[in-house]
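ping. complex inputs:
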Amino acid sequence: MTRNWKIFIAILAAGVLIGLIGLRSLHRRMARLAQTEVTDEQARREVLAPPVSTPTDVPVKASIFWAGGPDGVAPVQIELPLSADPVQRSRQLLHALIADPPTPDQRTIPADTDLLGFYILPDGTAVADFSDALSTETPSGILSERMAVDSIARTLGSSVPGLRRLKILIHGQEEETLAGHIDLTGFFDLNQPGQQAVPSAPASAPSASPGAPPPKAPAANPVPSAQQTNPH
Amino acid sequence: MRTAIARRCISAILFVVRNILGVVALAFGISVVAPFAVAQAPAQQEPQGNQQQTPQAAPPLAQQTPLPSNQAPAPAGPVIVLNPAHGGTDTGARGQNAAMEKDLVLQMARGVKAELERQGFRVVMTRNDDSNPSYDDRAAMANAYSDAIFVSLHIASTGTAGTIRVYYDQLSTPYAPSNETAGTRAKAVPPAAAGLNSWNEAQRAYLNSSHRLADLIQIMLVQKFSGSPLTPLGAAVRDLRSVAGPAVAIELSSVSAPDPVALANSTVAPLEEAIAGAITSFRAGTPGGAKQ
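pong. complex structure:
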C-alpha cells in the first residue's frame, strides 16, 4: 500500500468518525424539534400572552389535573410560581394546564387554547373565558369533554381558595355545549374533594368579550369588586 | 249516572287547576313539566296487564316512530326512548373513512330497537333519519310518556376501541348564595311552584333512578366489553338534563377505531341484551313505574 493510499484511508476514517458523531447530535436535535413543534396559535400565544408573573409570586407545589387514565383526570404535583392574587393565580394555573402537560397523552385542553379572560365575582363564582379552540379542537365525545372540564375545574378548585363555582365561556359567549356533549349553560361546583366537577343550575349567562367589562353572574351582586380584573 | 257526573266534575276541576298552575308558572317565567302529566302520574299509574300506555301529550316531532300495535301480547312496561345523538349538520365525532357519529349511532339505534321490540319492549326513537331535533324536542318525546326510560347513544372520538361507558347526569345541589347576595338572588330567581319541575332541571328529580339504571347497564356491559369501567360515570350530559324520567347516555369508544362501522354493528346485540337485562332488573326494583 502506497503512502498516498494510507493518507486517503486515514482521512476517510476521520470523516466517517466525524459523521457518526454529527449524525448522533443531529438526531438528538431533530427529536427535540419534533417535541417542541409549535403551531401558529401557540407561537402567537408566546408573544401575546406570556406566562403571568406578579410581584407576589411564590414557588408553590400545585396540583394540576391532567388525564390520569382512560376515564378521568388525576393530579400531578408541579412547582409553580403562584401569585397571592386569586385571579392571577388562576391564570397561572390554567396557563400551566394548557401549556405544560407531562406527556402528549395527558393533555386535556387543546394546545391552541387561549385563556382570553378570567374574573372572580364577589360570591366566589369564577368566570373563565377561553378562545374558540377549546370548543373546536377538543375531541367530540362525552369522555374527552368531561375530562377537559374536570381538569379545569379541579385544577382551580384545588389551588385557588375561595372559589365556589365555575362558569366556562367560549370567546365571551355562553355555549350550549363544549363540543356537542357536555353542558356549558350551567356552573360547575368547585372545592368538592374526591368528586368530579358537577354543574349547578343553568342560568342565563352574561356574555363577555376581550376588553369588555367583566360579566355579572345572575346571582351575584352587580357591583364590580376589586377582584375583577381584565387581563387585556 | 251520578258516578259519571262526579267524574266529569273531577276532570273539570283538574283541568281548571292545571290551567291555573300553568298561568302561575308563566307569570314566574318558568318553563314547566306539567306535574299531572309527567312528574306525578306514574306514582298512581302502574301499568296493568295488557293495558296500553298512551302518551300524555302529543309527541312534538313528525318523525316519531309509531307505537307497535301488531304485537301479541301487547307489551307492558316502560317506553324505551332511544336517542341516536346528533344528526343533520351536527355530525358528532368523525373518524376514518368519513365515518360519522351521527350515522353510526342511528345504525346502532335501529338495530337495538328491532331487537328490543322482538323481546316485547315498546321503543320510540327520537330520530329515524338524518334530522337533528333539538335537545328539548328529544327530551319532550320522552316526557310525553308517563313511564319512559331515555337512552342516548353516542360514539366517542377517544378511548380504547371496543370499550363502552354509561353516563348519568350529574347535577349539583342547588347553589346556596352567600349571605350578602342572598337577597339579590331571592328577587332574581323566584322559587318554582310546588309540584312543578323546571324544564331546565327536569332530570334533577330522577338523578337517583338514573344512577341506578346506569349502574345496572354498566354492569351488564362490562361483561361484554372488556376494558370498560366497572361503574358508570357522572357528567353534565346535555342530552339528559331536561328528561323527566330515568335517563342515561351510553358512549362507545371510538370512532377512531380501524373499522368503526363494523365496531358499531358488532355492538348492537350485546348492547340490546344489556339494555333489556338492565331495564328488567330496574323495573323489578321499581314496581311503581320507571319514574319512581
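The two ends of chain A are 76 Å apart (CA to CA).
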